[in-house]
Amino acid sequence: LFLNIWAPDQAKDLPVLLYIHGGAFTGGCGHEKHFDGPVWPEKGVIAVTINYRLGPLGFACLPELEREAGHTGNYGLYDQLAAIRWIRENIRAFGGDPENITVMGQSAGAMSVQQLCLSPLTKGLIAKAVMSSGGGVGEQLGKTGRAEEMYGYWQEVMKTAGCETLESLRSLSPEELFRAWDVVNQDHKGMGLTCTPCIDGRLIPRSGAEAIQSGKFLDIPYMAGSTSDDIVPPVVFRMAKGWCRLQADQGRHPSYTWFFDRQLPGDDEGAWHSSDLWYWFGTLDNCWRPFTEKDRDLSREMTDYLTNFAKTGDPNGAGLPQWLPQQKGQNRVMRLGEKPTHMGGVNIAKLNQTMLTSHAAGE
Question: Member of which family (predicted)?
Fold first, then answer.
């Protein structure tokens, strides 16, 4: 576990924006081109990215581990929690405000952010949260089950690796463990994601639905959204919008929904999963695509919205089109396309057609 930190010279009491990468809980890292050198410090926000344990190292669930520690699974999420706690304890040395930490994630990172916001262990640690293309109301993209439901799968991994005890399992190299996991994973392709957060009785004591129903999650400002050509576009967008609507319906802090549909130059793939990251981080120059001045203007506006939100919980600021929060009985979505504009709603039928077309093309 390590952190990458970008801070301006002579920073003092600046808000902090921690980004958790995606990758289906099995891939990705904290120093990809999308977020290598974000412009946030230029706008008065300290940027932090992290690595966390992935695959079997991050999400294995075994009864032997449960007996040993009292819980099992979610090791990758515990890494994320450790990073947040480290920031709280040390960010003043970099000029940051430990009381003003915003946590942002994309895809599996967004799912992580949601789980952290549902957890009793993060109370008082997170001031604001941002979820891009993952998380929200509904668990269609990764149902949170109980740890013991995955025992059989991980015991099969252990057996394939030739291990009968935790001691022998821990003696494996990471490469050996991942090879055994890959063999078993190939035999269970229909299971969907096999490395995911689980109800462990500690970090995640209950299902997301139960936490939401009981109101036991962080009452903080949120931003959430997705892209027009996302993974299962209608589902991902409904989840993001539903999360922000939930905050409004329960009279909680303001929450803001976005829909990114900027066609990236260079091909005809549309606004695909993670394509918005170049814009949120202001790292267009790290990409090979022939971005235009309109792309750079959009990125400037998106980074302004994001850093304003990290500072105050409100994305709005001077010179920006007004972004209205979700309100009970109303549908407020900011469209991030050629330029930010408000839209009353998103054409779900069109998103369904996008999904069907992508599936027919084998994407």
Answer: Belongs to the type-B carboxylesterase/lipase family.
Q: Which two tokens stand for residue 286?
A: 């790290």
Q: What is the pLDDT of residue 193?
A: 73
Taking only the tens place, the pLDDT of each residue in 309-351 is: 999 999 999 999 999 999 888 889 999 998 888 876 555 445 4
DSSP three-state, residue 129: strand
Task: Look over the chain and give the mean of its residue pLDDT values, rounded to a whole number.
Answer: 88
Q: How far apart are CA 302 and CA 298, in angstroms?
A: 6
Q: Using an 8 Å Cβ cutoff, are 326 and 256 in contact?
A: yes
8 A C-beta contact, residue 170 and residue 162: no
The ranges of the chain with pLDDT < 70 are 138-143, 190-192, 233, 344-363
Alpha-carbon span 275 to 34, nearest angstrom: 9
Give pTM, 2 decimals.
Answer: 0.91
Residues in contact with 41: Cβ distance below 8 Å, sequence separation at least 6, in sequence order? 6, 7, 8, 11, 47
Rounded distance between C-alpha atoms, residue 49 and residue 304, angstroms: 19
Domain assignments of the chain as residue spans, ordered by start: 3-141+200-360
Helix (H) or strand (E) holding 257: strand 255-260
On the CB side of 308, how many CA atoms lie within 13 Å of its CA?
16
Tokens of 185: 């994973």
